[in-house]
């Protein structure tokens, strides 16, 4: 397909095929996830009680230094709407299908844009797609095993008075669950964004190092936005991986010297391609002149 010139409608037809494949796989995965209701919601409701892996880990760490562990708790979720449980089941099934099928969806998009790219662009973006998927899943894991449990523990057990019990609705908890998990998955794409901006020359390694202190303030603010609990401990727990992502972004960015060298190399390649084109034109003209002479 890369060697064949395609019209706008041909490209549109290829995009339609890609979208149909994505929607078809997403539908199949959603239906499949729908039939795994019990294990799926066991995972989702895991952070609601003190048996969750993070709380047990805190118990062991605090026990090593002679401190009291996490207080035992069991947060109850209730439903107050007639159709909420069914539609929550559908929403969560779609969310799980989206996560499982993400590599396939990215691959389909890659097959669509690949023919329009130069070899060096293909190599760069191919690696970016794969690494973006890894970081996205790491972000989901960080959200589920770290950010969500801390937020649930704080908000779910916080009371202004012992006489006012918390009655958490199903839609409220699921909304917070999906929101936090997705936000952490997106935030973990920071190094990929930095690498792409560095490749096009907008930022570089030296610029990120220069504004490191300013970035720390912004990351703390971002951590406060991500964590609705607002307590200092949870904010710190979220801010640490964000700062590590910033440092990793510096590592994957190119220096100003590397950017200038690449720019010079690309200009030389462009000049070579122009010379080759001009040579082909001259050869073609000589051939035509020889045929005319005969």
User: How big a fraction of the residues is strand?
Assistant: under 5%
Rounded mean pLDDT is 81
| Count of helical regions | 11
- The rounded distance between the terminal residues' Cα atoms is 39 Å
> Helices and strands, in N-to-C order?
HHHEHHEHHHHHH
Which descriptor suits the 3D outline?
A: flat
Structural class: mainly alpha
Total strand segments: 2
Largest sheet: 2 strands, parallel
Q: Unreliable stretches, pLDDT < 50, 5 or more residues?
A: none
Helix amount, in percent?
over 70%
What's the Cα radius of gyration?
27 Å
* Strand order within the widest beta sheet: 1-2
Task: Please name the defining characteristics of this protein.
11 helices; 76% helix; 294 residues; two-stranded parallel sheet; mainly alpha; flat; single chain
Would you kindly provide a written description of the structure presented here, covering whatever features stand out?
The chain has 294 residues and is an all-alpha fold. It has a domain at 255-294. It is built from eleven helices and two strands. A two-stranded parallel sheet has the order 1-2. The two termini are 39 Å apart.
């Amino acid at each position: 397909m890369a060697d064949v010139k395609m019209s706008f409608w041909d490209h549109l037809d290829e995009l339609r095929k890609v979208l149909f494949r994505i929607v078809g796989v997403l539908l199949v995965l959603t239906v499949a996830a729908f039939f795994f209701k019990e294990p799926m919601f066991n995972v989702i409701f895991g952070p609601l009680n003190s048996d969750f892996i993070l709380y047990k880990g805190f118990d062991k760490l605090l026990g090593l230094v002679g401190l009291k562990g996490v207080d035992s708790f069991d947060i109850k979720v209730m439903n107050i709407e007639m159709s909420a449980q069914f539609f929550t089941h559908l929403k969560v099934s779609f969310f799980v299908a989206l996560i499982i099928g993400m590599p396939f969806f990215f691959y389909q998009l890659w097959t669509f844009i690949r023919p329009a790219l130069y070899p060096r662009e293909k190599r760069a973006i191919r690696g970016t797609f794969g690494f973006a998927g890894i970081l996205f899943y790491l972000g989901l894991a960080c959200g589920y095993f770290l950010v969500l449990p801390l937020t649930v523990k704080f908000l779910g057990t916080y009371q202004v008075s012992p006489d006012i019990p918390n009655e958490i609705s199903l839609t409220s908890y699921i909304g917070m669950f999906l929101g936090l998990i997705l936000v952490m998955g997106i935030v973990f794409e920071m190094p990929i964004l930095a690498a792409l901006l560095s490749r096009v020359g907008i930022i570089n390694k030296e610029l990120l190092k220069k504004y490191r202190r300013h970035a720390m303030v912004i990351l703390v603010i971002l951590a406060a936005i991500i964590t609705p609990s607002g307590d200092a401990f949870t904010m710190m727990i979220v801010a640490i991986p964000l700062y590590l992502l910033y440092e990793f972004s510096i590592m994957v960015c190119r220096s100003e010297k590397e950017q200038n060298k690449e720019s010079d190399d690309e200009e030389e390649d462009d000049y070579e391609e122009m010379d080759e084109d001009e040579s082909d034109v001259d050869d073609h003209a000589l051939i035509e002149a020889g045929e005319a002479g005969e």
